[in-house]
Write a structure and sequence with these properties.
Order of helices and strands: HEEHHEHEHEEHEHEHE
Distance between the termini: 78 Å
Strand order of the largest sheet: 5-4-3-6-7-9-8
Radius of gyration: 22 Å
Number of strands: 9
Structural class: alpha/beta
Length: 262
């Protein structure tokens, strides 16, 4: 068989076994949600078209923890270094930067689309963000991994973040230990330090598994305090099953270091 004949046969094989152009569904386009802050600014937040990590929703927990940050801005935001985990669109982080945080690091899984989406939302808010350079930055981070890369955005000598934000992450039951580990390694050991954990039990029959996170946190040296319980006007996912009241309820908890002498 000549080289030309081999090339022809190979070409036929490529055509025969090539997937048609419409074999895969087209990627879903990005969507947008608006949130008006208590201080009057309206944020137009871009959400990725679809994400297996659920970054394509603006979660109730993110909205409620944003409101909570405003109500307690003096203690939790102003002049504080803030880290958000699993941020998605980054709503609470952007709001905290607007309301006077010293430095904000907004993180999610190091997926290119998720991280770029956070940066797009930061850039879209640049007209209402303070002008200080790099006051809010976005990075990818895997829960439980070394926290050293996260500290690079802080000023030299700073050994942790004052306020951590975890909004609607507890349904990832297999990641609870990794989340607690990240809190331990990033929350500054100070009496003013707080980790805010807000969530809705979207699968109410697994509520006990959601709450098991706080048992792990307590064993890891944190004092756990419930700070909020609010019933939303409607459920996020109307076709889901399970107790509707629970699926409409946002629970908020605060973690503090139990014993700073250790």
């Amino acid at each position: 068989m000549s080289l030309d004949e081999e090339d022809i046969i190979d070409g036929i094989g490529e055509v025969l076994f090539q997937e048609p152009s419409d074999y895969y569904p087209p990627p879903k386009p990005a969507t947008f949600e608006s949130k008006t802050l208590q201080t009057g600014e309206t944020l137009r937040l871009r959400l990725v078209g679809h994400s297996p990590l659920w970054g394509h929703h603006l979660w109730n927990g993110a909205q409620m923890v944003t409101d909570y940050l405003y109500d307690h801005a003096l203690d939790l935001v102003q002049g504080r270094n803030i880290l958000e985990l699993g941020a998605g669109a980054g709503l609470p982080s952007i709001a905290a930067a607007i309301w006077g945080a010293k430095q904000v690091l907004v993180t999610d899984y190091p997926d290119e689309d998720l991280v770029e989406n956070m940066r797009i939302n930061i850039d879209a808010a640049k007209d209402i963000l303070p002008q200080s350079a790099n006051k809010i930055v976005a990075k990818g981070h895997v829960w439980g991994a070394s926290a050293d890369p996260l500290f690079s955005c802080l000023r030299p000598g700073c050994c942790g973040f004052d306020t951590l934000i975890l909004a609607d992450l507890l349904f990832n039951h297999s990641q609870h230990a990794a989340l607690v580990s990240t809190i331990q390694s990033t929350l500054i050991r100070s009496s003013h330090a707080r980790a805010l954990v807000f969530f809705t039990p979207y699968t109410p029959w697994k509520f006990d598994k959601d709450m098991a996170f706080f048992d792990l946190a307590h064993k890891a040296g944190f004092r756990v305090t419930k700070v909020l319980q609010k019933v939303m006007d409607k459920v996020m996912f109307k076709d889901d099953r399970g107790d509707e009241l629970l699926r409409r309820t946002v629970f908020g908890y605060e973690l503090r270091w139990e014993n700073l002498d250790l």
